[in-house]
Amino acid sequence: MKAIVLTVLVLVGHTLAASTNHDEYTKQAIDELKHMQTSRFLTLNVQPKCTEEDNSIECCISFKLTGKFRKICIKVTLSPKKSDASFDLVFDGQLVFSRDLQVGQVCAPLPNKLKALKSCVDVYYVNLDTKPPALSFECCFTIKMAGIMKLKPNCIRLDKDGILSQHS
Known about the structure:
3 domains, 2 helices, alpha+beta, six-stranded antiparallel beta sheet, single chain, elongated, 12 strands, about 170 residues
């Protein structure tokens, strides 16, 4: 594969020989490809492959590390009804890292002199659709200001045509 890429680069380099800048870039690219070919530490063998199922996506890449073939995968699963997501990192079939992320309530202090008080956004409904032709979602939330005021704005919707709207 690398030999084919190297051959194509050489042919392109000769075709563009009228410009010295192209010759310099071609020579540099050839030198880098030769170095990659002789590298023994890390060699990528294929492009990442991703598979999708309902509300999850998993991307894996195979590579050669110190002479051994390895595989690393990242999987993200969304649970729109529960407003959460999970993230998994798997190396050679072994789970290395897993984290659950809750959307739910996010709080932050108010700005300036009111920083002793906090405001919170509480997401109580999320509907996410990742199926083609495009991403769409619907999200409803309340805003709590310093425990003395509660706002319930209209829900937000992004449809498959990319139109953002509000509804109650």
